[in-house]
From TrEMBL:
InterPro entries, per the entry: LEA_2 (IPR004864), WHy-dom (IPR013990)
High-level lineage: Bacteria, Pseudomonadati, Pseudomonadota, Betaproteobacteria, Rhodocyclales
GO BP annotations, alphabetical order: response to desiccation
Protein known as: LEA14-like dessication related protein
Organism: Niveibacterium umoris
Domain Water stress and hypersensitive response, chain residue ranges per copy: 31-150
Length: 164
């Protein structure tokens, strides 16, 4: 069976970009959720949320970020997806915060709400996706923590805790 040449080229480019990051000694940015706020004005099928993300740079060089692409799960259930074209420069050995509005299916939220609300316990969350950089391509991230539902709604800082 013959493999089309374009697949070989794509594989080659992917390998080279991975090798380039390793050769540069570049570590992936660390992304965590610092605040979760339910926004007013959702519709029958969609709920809007605002996530505040802390993006930290463990590298000794700044990283120009062109945007983010990510998913947000609560208690193992896909709650929302987000995209941001907010461009920031992440300082070397520094961090910045980015507020991102995301959309989630109200049907999925209602389907899992009883299980998520039982027991008054903090819920596990996961945020994962890619930081889109100007110079280094897409850098994946995956972070887990806990969210306390009794602190949601008012956008209370600290509603999300335990960045793991």
């Amino acid at each position: 069976m013959r493999v089309p040449s374009r697949w070989l080229i794509l594989l080659w480019v992917a390998l080279l970009s991975g090798c380039a990051m390793m050769a540069l000694g570049l570590e992936k940015p660390e992304v965590s959720v610092t605040e979760l706020q339910i926004l007013p004005g959702g519709s029958l099928l969609e709920q809007r949320l605002r996530l505040t993300l802390r993006v930290a740079n463990p590298n000794n060089r700044e990283i120009a970020i062109d945007g983010l692409s990510f998913r947000f799960e609560v208690d193992g259930h896909d709650l929302a997806r987000g995209l941001s074209n907010q461009a920031v420069v992440l300082p070397k050995l520094g961090e910045t915060t980015m507020s991102v509005d995301v959309s989630g299916s109200i049907v999925d939220l209602l389907r899992h709400a009883p299980k998520m609300l039982e027991g008054g316990r903090p819920l596990g969350y996961r945020v994962y996706g890619d930081v889109v950089t100007r110079d280094y391509g897409r850098l994946p991230f995956d972070r887990k923590g806990e969210v306390s539902l009794d602190k949601l709604g008012g956008g209370v800082p600290g509603a999300v805790r335990g960045q793991i």
